[in-house]
Amino acid sequence: MTTHNKSALFPRGGAIAWGLLTLFAIAIALFFAAPYVTFDAAVSRIPLNPVAPLHFTVLALHAITGGIALLVGPFQFLPRFRTRFPAVHRITGRIYVACIIIGSIMAAYSAIVSTAGFVAQVGFLLLASIWFYSIVQAYMAIRQGHIQLHRIWMIRNYALTSAAIFLRIWLGLGVAYLAKTHTLHGDVTSTPVYTSAAWISWIVPLVFAEWFIIQRFLRPIALKQEKVDKQAQSVKQA
Q: pTM value?
């Protein structure tokens, strides 16, 4: 009879999660981001603001750079990839950083000129702002040689990048519900489903990322420090 301990289960679970995330990233990049490379406004999946002539161009740049970041990101977290191909890791890392910087700035503009309403605009603008801030922090950390801190900020950043995945999942479920209840009238961006997606799509993955950071990085440090403090207290009492 084969037995499994906790340490053996976590790598397998992590591999499954990584595989699912990568598959979703590829699907979103190919089916939702890739069409924008033609820069044909007809492929736009959201209503364009008629008083903002650059809206589609900016939206296309956001989609393209975001799609590249979605594809590149998962491979940056593979320990074997980083160890065996450090030069490739650095090059793809620079590509990722450039894509996030461009994509987040374009996303901020798109949020401001969005026709989806004020609540959705604020949600997407906050996402763009935190997305930009987290990649700057990740870049500064690695430049200063703080590898662990860099990884923590990269986890947060890719969680925000994956908002593109959660957005489509939430919209898909929402549209299915509206269609079933015969309450879908007009474009989906004018519905509460889209408004809620502007917040849920990035809050959910970011909360999970923070939980992962606590379990993977902060909890071991806290337990180690607690052990050191107890040993020091024992020495004082001796």
A: 0.88
